[in-house]
Amino acid sequence: MAGRDTFQLRFAAVAASAAVLIFLVSSQVAEASRMMNLCSHTAYPSLCQPLVKGITNPRRATHKTIQALEAKTKLALAEAARYKSGNQEITTCYETLTDAIYNLGNARKSIRKRNVMAMNTFLTAAVSDYGVCVEGFIDKRQVNTVQNAAVDLRKIGSNCLTLSTLIR
Prior knowledge:
enzyme inhibitor activity; 168 residues; signal; Invertase/methylesterase_inhib
């Protein structure tokens, strides 16, 4: 009888250890899957992944993407400033990029205050600003560095807006 009880005890210990191991492995897999899933929800995952690498929290991912978008918008604004005289589309783009920086700054402040509705409003406005910039170039059939930057900014802004919808 003692042998049978020992066997049952060992079996229970092995089963419990296996259950704990499975739980730990599955939680790590779920965490990795969640990280990959953040960008899989976006329209442009290849632009999303480098910005949120290693981040699994949607709020942090959105915040980091807003910061990156702000920095990239400032670079595009500097590029537009170089060419705005004599080109109405670049002048319009310069103005809308200035508005986008304002909107992104407010979106960043809103996320810190945990005001998701305001953040989404400001992100939507920024994406709209990029769209106005891009449309002006399309209408005049211009292709230049400012237009190319605005296209990428609109895509990243769209991703950022999608990430913001994952915040709970």
